[in-house]
Amino acid sequence: MADTILTVDHLVKSFRIHQQKSTSLKQLIAGKGRNRFDDFIAVNDVTFDVREGEVFGIIGQNGSGKSTLLKCMAGILQPNSGRVVVFRRMGALLELGAGFHPELSGRENVFLNAAILGMGRKEITARFDEIVDFSGLRAFIDQPVKTYSSGMYVRLAFAVAINVDPQLLIVDEILAVGDVSFQRRCLEKFVEFRNEGRTIVLVTHDLGSVKSLCDRAIWLEHGKTVDAGDPGDLVEAYTERMLGAEAPAADGSVRRGSGEIKIVQIEMFVNGGATAVKRCRTNDDVVIRLHYEAEKTIPQPVVGIEIEILGGATVTAPNTRDVGLVPATMSGAGVIEIALANISLVPGTYDIHTSITDFNRALVYDNLHEALRFDVMTGKPYETGGVVTMRPAWKLD
Amino acid sequence: MSLRRAIAHRNLLYLLSLKELRTRYKKSVLGWAWSLFNPLSQMLIFTVIFTYVFVAQPIPGDPSGLKNFPLYFLSGLLPWNFFSITTSVAMANVQSGSGLIKKVSFPHEHLVFSVLIAQFVTLLIETAILTIALLIVGQNVLKWLPVVLLIYSLWALFTAGVALALSAFNVFFHDVSYLWTILSQILFYMTPVIYFTVGLPDVLVGRILKTAANWGPTGGFIVAFHNLFYDGHMPAARLLLYLALLAITSFTIGMWIFGRLSPRFAEEM
């Protein structure tokens, strides 16, 4: 087993939340103000080891204590109790370009920034060309950085940061900078780092990169460790918890149409279950049941549903006309069932819109926008990207 | 411990000091000449006021026999400005370094030391000009320059201690910088920069002022500089001993306070 390169041992970090933020000598002398505070525990008794050569991920919601933990690891914040032991040279990239001075030239800032990140003078001189080449800014290197565009600024900052050459790199959400081609180069550099056997601790919201890059991961919630171990399992459990934790949105449905016939209720059943649910898994057998009521007899109505990913594109929009199932008339009350066997949706939140129109789809009797919102949880197959799974069959030689 | 870490990051200190020097007069036409105009204009003002408004005779330097207001002022004013500018700029520099402090782990002392070094370079340049002026009026200060450098170093050590303590407190209470504006004014007049201690009236206030001027923390240093530049003699041995003690005490206390408080900077800012 590889050597431990970083140990976080029963780390606790709390912050004092002052009732009044303003601090002045008057308050201190009066003996008030400074005493009125609450303790907010940001990191609560977290323990883990990072081994040499692995990529270690930290996941958790906003406010779960990831950044505080990282700052303690980087030595920016002092823990209240517990300790962080680092056995090798560490580089922490919490923000790119921290300490860049707008009036100084790119060259001067490279030297200054590299020194801030802990490099010696000889080292910087030796790596200077590499840094400039990586940034692709050789033509501008003697211009003051205030003349740089924000993209150029970030490129130069990343070029410095990635060349600090640490044995242990701590990264906070910085892989998502710059344009697409630069992002790719960053990712390549990152993989190169990993392949060279260096250790990386990565905090990101991009669960896909946690699964693909990390060897192990830890999941934080409210400053506590929920689970640690294999990133695949952890990400699955995490997405499940995150989607499940969110209460179904309040009924935000909007109805349009002339109203002679209406969908009065929509229900979802999973795998032959008898109770209506708002949640399924990829590959479940799903049945959507629409209850309608008509005030009068409607000739040749066309019933349709539309499934849309939350805030995104329409996934599918089947209707009865397309399959040649338009009744001559419809009246009174009744139920329409749509069975979706082995549903192909990947984990996420989806909305169902319903509609009843005349045969030409010109006259809208009823259109219920966001009739039902439901969550799809992890099932088989599991895919993180896209909207639907095509159930790919992989073959690797 | 923190001093060792500060030394390990000496490259950062070098570059931060360079940044201080390089950015100071960016975008100004006269550039570095401005650092000379400030003491020169102050000297001119004091000379006019003491020669024509509060009519006073300059007391001749002993044993140099030099009788010159402007040069007397300048020899105390240059080190004084170094002290007063370093302390106030260091406080501002630590405060404006919050972006860095919150994002990167580095010895925060360097935000103070870089200001100190940049101001010390300025002081040396200004002293070169003063030396030339003194040589022109026939005062041979060249032989005293090594001693000047020694006391300058003690003065820098003393200034560093004060700047460190003030900057650290200022992170927690911004009142410190406002309070210091007033206190340094008081300290300025308790230091014999623009008057001769010999000329002080022999009444209670005069006697208090005289004691403060000769033996106050800043007064002692200024007296030593007058001895070397204006009077042209070696400062008394017990004065030198006193100054060394002051410098070491101030620096030790300043480092201790800064070292105790700086781990909490990131969350207080």
Structure summary:
The complex is a heterodimer of chains A (397) and B (269). Chain A is α/β, with parallel strands linked by helices and 397 residues long.
Protein architecture, described:
The complex is a heterodimer of chains A (397) and B (269). Chain A has 397 residues and is of the alpha/beta class. Chain A has two domains: 4-245, Rossmann fold, CATH 3.40.50.300; 254-377, Distorted Sandwich (Coagulation Factor XIII, Chain A, domain 1). Chain A is built from eight helices and 20 strands. Chain A has helices spanning 25-30, 66-73, 106-116, 121-135, 150-162, 180-195, 207-213, 231-245, and strands spanning 4-18, 37-51, 55-59, 81-86, 90-93, 168-172, 199-203, 216-221, 224-229, 254-256, 261-270, 279-281, 286-294, 298-299, 302-309, 314-316, 329-330, 333-340, 348-357, 364-377. In chain A, strands 5-6-7-3-8-9 form a six-stranded mixed β-sheet, sandwiched between helices. In chain A, strands 10, 12, 15, 16, 19 and 20 form a six-stranded mixed β-sheet that branches. In chain A, helix 6 links the parallel strand 6 (168-172) and strand 7 (199-203). Chain A starts with a strand and ends in a 20-residue tail after the last strand. Residues 246-250 of chain A have low confidence and may be disordered. Chain B has twelve helices and no strands. In chain B, 75% of the residues lie in helices and 0% in strands. Chain B has one domain (2-268). The longest helix of chain B has 28 residues, at 69-96. Chain B is an all-alpha fold. The radius of gyration of chain B is 19 Å and the shape is globular. At the A-B interface, helix 1 and helix 3 of A face helix 2, helix 5 and helix 8 of B.
